[in-house]
Write a structure and sequence with these properties.
Blueprint lengths: L7 H6 L25 H14 L3 H15 L11
């Protein structure tokens, strides 16, 4: 009688089901953006968020709206005051 392989050997031998392609993003969905900040910038952002009792995300969205307005675009980034 032959034993069935277990552990890593068995896992490697199994065929995995193909992953279906990702659906296109729908209206109203969000995209993730990684932002690398120098330490002093991050510390100042954290301090402002704490002082204003707001999230860092909210402050960054406000900043994006200011940038859009400065460049003649409508302020469309959602943020809580």
């Amino acid at each position: 009688m032959t034993r069935k392989p277990t552990g890593l050997v068995a896992a490697m031998a199994k065929k995995q089901a193909p992953v279906p392609p990702a659906a296109p993003p729908e209206e109203g969905t969000f995209r993730t953006l990684t932002l690398r900040l120098p330490v002093p910038v991050h510390e100042q952002l954290r301090e402002l968020a704490y002082t204003d009792r707001r999230s860092q995300h909210s402050l960054l969205m406000e900043g994006l709206n200011l940038l859009f307005e400065r460049r003649g675009k409508p302020p469309i980034a959602p943020h809580a005051a």
